[in-house]
Amino acid sequence: MTLDDLGQALYDLVLAVAQGTETCSEALGHQEFCIQVQAVRTYQPRMPAYLYKFT
User: Which of 33, 45, 28, 18 shows the shortest CA–CA distance to 55?
Assistant: First the structure.
């Protein structure tokens, strides 16, 4: 399978789910999901870096 084939398969799957096809987890009865986003530190810490190992 080529990268183009995999991309097309992923696109087709996303489109099918958007049109209402059940995902595997939905077919098994699961209804919850969690999207985790890693926080990005956009500020400069005010305490010395060596103290961060204690926080």
Answer: 45
pLDDT at 41: 65
Where exactly are the structural domains of the chain? 3-54
> Does 31 have pLDDT greater than 90?
no
Count Cα atoms within 13 angstroms, Cβ side, for 42: 3
SS3 percent helix, strand, coil of the chain, rounded to 5, is: 45, 0, 55
- Torsional sign, CA 46, 41, 33, 25: negative
Residue 4 is encoded by which pair of tokens?
């183009």
